[in-house]
Structures are given as C-alpha cells and as structure tokens.
C-alpha cells in the first residue's frame, strides 16, 4: 500500500511538472517551489520525463515535447536568451577576417548578427529581415539581403527569388538556424521552401554551422526537413544529453556546446 501511494505521488508530481512546463515555467528552482519538493528531486523527475520522451531538456530548464508549433519571431525572442547569446558569441569566433558570411533568419542568428555588427570588415548575406536592418547600421559590414517571399512568423525570406540570388553568391561560412534537429531526419523547418534555401546555402559554403539551443533537439516534428551533411557542426548550449550528442556523432555531425 505504501509503495502504491509513493508511486501515485510520483506520477502526480510528474503530471504537475508537465503542466507547469506547458504554462511556460521551466526553471528548476521555480518548479521545485511550485510542486513543493527539492531542486534535486525536480532534476531527477525531469531526467525521468526526458527518458520517457515526454520533455526535452533545455538551457536551465525543460519544455514539453508537443505537436509542432511554429513560434512567431517575437515569441521566440523571449525564450532561452542566455543560451542564444552564448551560442552567438562562440559562433562569431568561427568567422575569419574579411570573410563572406551567410546568417540565417531566426532569433539565434539575430543574436549572432548583433555580435558581428562590431566586427569587420565583413560581407554578410542574410534572409532575416531583423538581421539585415541591424547590420545595415554597422559601418564595417557590407550587407546583402537575399530576396524572396517573407515568411510571416519567422520574418525570413524564401522562394524563387532567394534561389536566384544565392546562385550568384558564395560564403566562407554559413550559420543556419533550425526549428528542430534530429540525428536521422536532419534539420526541420515549417516549409519546404525554407529547407531548400538552407540546402542552397550549404552547397555554396566552405563551412556550415547550425546554431540551435538545446530545446530544438528531438523536439516536435515539423513538415519539412534538410539532411545534415557529415561535415556540418551544431553549436548549442550544455543542455543536450550525451546520448543525443552520440547519435549525431554517428552521423558525422559534431555537436559542440558554446
């Protein structure tokens, strides 16, 4: 009887944690306070839920694995800011002097653009509206805005005009964003047009680095995918579990914490 009560109590606590995570509360200390247990107990619970595939661990917390939902740019900008800043700082160190660089759309890539604005001279091509506007104010950065149809949520461009522009460009290094990363499926996006742009960019780049915080790994499944090539690398935070890192490694893709 005592064992049954203990099991039920644990299950109820797990459900409470999932409910809190769905509401946007993801800090370990806050979760511990809300469910009335220690932080170490919450960490063990989160590890259990992760092992069951119900959540994904993130930089300093966790999120629920749900059906795919493309966040708006504004919504994404409020999430995992510390992880994105750390990833951006590390990514900037990979940019050679006077390089030609591609910076993707998305909030992690925008964080990189903020860092690159103080570097130079550089040539930066981007499909992100916010990144182009930010870099246009940087005196040492030559900015190329890739044309195309604007995606309403990500504020990135894609489509036939993007293909025309990218066919005339080449890059020393390309930094790609992602909605989801999976070792077998690759890099997930909401539309085929966006995955195609990423493939075009990768084919014209000497080096490809994907910028993605740990919440993007093994997350909900979007409709379109780009295969991760063996020579690509992924720059992330320290929230990716070793088994996932190893799975990408078997595909020849290195996952590196910032």
Notes on the structure:
This is DeoR family transcriptional regulator. Residues 9-64 form the HTH deoR-type domain. It is a single chain. This protein is of the alpha/beta class and 258 residues long. It folds into 2 domains: 2-64, Winged helix-like DNA-binding domain superfamily/Winged helix DNA-binding domain (Arc Repressor Mutant, subunit A, Orthogonal Bundle); 73-257, 3-Layer(aba) Sandwich (Rossmann fold). 41% of the residues lie in helices and 20% in strands. The chain has helices at 2-22, 28-35, 39-51, 73-77, 81-92, 107-116, 129-136, 160-166, 192-203, 242-250, and strands spanning 55-58, 61-64, 100-103, 122-126, 141-145, 149-150, 157-158, 173-176, 180-182, 186-189, 208-211, 224-226, 233-236, 254-257. The strands form 4 sheets. A 7-stranded parallel β-sheet has the order 5-4-3-8-11-13-14, with helices on both faces. Strand 3 (100-103), helix 6 (107-116) and strand 4 form a beta-alpha-beta unit. Helix 2 packs across helix 3 (39-51) and helix 6 runs parallel beside helix 7. The longest helix has 21 residues, at 2-22. It is elongated, with a radius of gyration of 20 Å. The termini are far apart. The model has no long low-confidence stretch (mean pLDDT 85).
Based on secondary structure, the structural category is alpha/beta
Our count of domains comes out at 2
N- to C-terminal separation? Answer: 48 Å
CATH architecture label name of the largest domain: 3-Layer(aba) Sandwich
Measured by DSSP, the beta-strand proportion falls in: 15-25%
Integer-rounded radius of gyration: 20 Å
> How can the largest sheet be summarized?
7 strands, parallel
The whole-number mean of residue pLDDT values reads 85
Q: Output the number of helix runs.
A: 10
Query: Regarding CATH, which class of the largest domain?
Result: Alpha Beta
Low-confidence stretches: none
- Can you tell me the CATH topology of the largest domain? Rossmann fold
* Spatial strand arrangement across the major sheet: 5-4-3-8-11-13-14
Q: What is the H/E string?
A: HHHEEHHEHEHEEEHEEEHEEEHE
Secondary structure: helix percent: 40-55%
Based on CA inertia axes, which overall geometry fits? elongated
For the secondary structure, the number of strands is 14
InterPro entries: Carb_Metab_HTH_regulators, DeoR-like_C, DeoR_HTH, NagB/RpiA_transferase-like, Tscrpt_reg_HTH_DeoR_CS, WH-like_DNA-bd_sf, WH_DNA-bd_sf
GO molecular function: DNA binding; DNA-binding transcription factor activity
Protein name: DeoR family transcriptional regulator
Keywords: DNA-binding, Transcription, Transcription regulation
């Amino acid at each position: 009887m005592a064992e049954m009560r203990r099991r039920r109590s644990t299950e109820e606590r797990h459900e409470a944690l999932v409910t809190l995570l769905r509401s946007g509360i993801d800090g370990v200390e806050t979760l511990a306070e809300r469910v009335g247990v220690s932080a170490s107990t919450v960490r063990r619970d989160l590890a259990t839920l992760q092992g069951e595939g119900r959540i994904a661990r993130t930089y300093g917390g966790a999120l629920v694995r749900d059906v795919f939902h493309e966040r708006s740019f504004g919504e994404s900008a409020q999430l995992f800011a510390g992880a994105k800043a750390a990833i951006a700082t590390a990514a900037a160190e990979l940019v050679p002097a006077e390089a030609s660089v591609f910076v993707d759309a998305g909030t992690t890539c925008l964080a990189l653009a903020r860092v690159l604005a103080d570097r130079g001279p550089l040539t930066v091509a981007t499909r992100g509206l916010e990144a182009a506007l930010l870099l246009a104010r940087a005196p040492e950065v030559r900015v190329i805005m890739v044309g195309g149809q604007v995606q309403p949520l990500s504020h990135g461009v894609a489509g036939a005009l993007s293909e025309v522009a990218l066919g005339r460009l080449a890059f020393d290094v390309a930094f790609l964003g992602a909605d989801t990363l999976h070792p077998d499926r690759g890099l997930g996006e909401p539309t085929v047009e966006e995955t195609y742009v990423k493939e075009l960019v990768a084919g014209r780049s000497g080096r490809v680095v994907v910028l993605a915080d740990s919440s993007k790994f093994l997350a909900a499944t979007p409709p379109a995918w780009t295969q991760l090539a063996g020579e690509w690398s992924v720059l992330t935070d320290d929230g990716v579990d070793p088994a996932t890192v190893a799975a990408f490694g078997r595909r020849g893709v290195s996952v590196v914490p910032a």
